[in-house]
């Protein structure tokens, strides 16, 4: 029997942890000093920048390293090699911190639209290209998840359990309404979805449909089922459920 997919790190939780690390004043000021320096900074320099002891600075710097905001190595500043142990130096990582509650994924939407523009085919209009790009990306994400976790055959219940984990990471706030139906309580693309519901909700639906296909979840489909304040898509078997009309599909956010 195939094992359940392993739990993955929560990006939103990691971002909140990073922000928490920066809540201490001296730590935040040292981090700002190191970012502005544009070079590796020693403990002594970091300590002097905020007027604290070298030992206390080392404590704060190690916290920033643990949070993934700084990286550390041993190096002689200026490249001049001296006798003895090289000092520990710190420089910023490429980490970018964004915390929004509820979670928003505007960068994913922008990336999909960019893909659509760059790959628009002859005979496609902009909207058709956007839907295709969203579905292709969703399928790629699903295929990658299946390759990584190797879950075996996925029926509706196990398939939705697997979907919950990824959709939670993407900020959809999934809630299991029934064993075979998953409601998405948050729209990661709000408020842009409210400005262009046909386009954004359509891309969202295409992305999630592609994801189900790539993950090879049997008997589950993505259905446009907007509710005020929630994602416009629901995942389920569709048994006993009517597809909403075109007018209803613009009511979600």
TrEMBL record:
- Bias kind Basic and acidic residues: ranges: 138-151
What InterPro entries does this protein's entry cite? ArsR-like_HTH, WH-like_DNA-bd_sf, WH_DNA-bd_sf
Highest rank taxon of the organism:
Bacteria
Name the segments for region: Disordered.
138-158
- Put simply, this protein is called Helix-turn-helix transcriptional regulator
